[in-house]
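Hi team,

Below is the intake form for Sigma factor-like helix-turn-helix DNA-binding protein from Kribbella deserti. Please confirm the fields before the structure is written into the shared record.

FORM ID: S-0412
PROTEIN: Sigma factor-like helix-turn-helix DNA-binding protein
ORGANISM: Kribbella deserti
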Amino acid sequence: MTCSNHRPSLMVRRPDYTRPVIEYLFAALFDPHAAYGSTAAQAPPPDMPRSTPNKARSNTYYAHLADARIAWTTTPLTDKERRAIFLRHVLDWTNHDIARHEGVTRQTIEKRLFTGIGKLVATLNGAVFSEAHSH
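The structure came back. Fields below:
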């Protein structure tokens, strides 16, 4: 027996962002060409006909990039966390190189990265960051 009063929810569920997703997005966030993707050496010429995409199953990459950009500007990161995230995930520096540049230990950089990415993930998921719940 089905209930005729049952309606599907119209609310769109937000994606659950994770640390790996955020770290991947930040590599592309400050690269104006990243949204266009890379071209494979064996790819067909650009003037070849393409298939029509299925919009119901389309990629959410652009939406995730937009969300990441908003999180970057609205999440209350310290300057040290923001700098560590930028150097690591945008410029691809190693934690050792960042630590040497900042004059601190590698463990300090790892803590800044952990806390900063955690805050970004919490912001994107509509939560409050807590170190106790992030381990």
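SUMMARY LINE: The helical segments are 19-29, 61-74, 79-90, 95-102, 106-124, 131-134.

Thanks, M.
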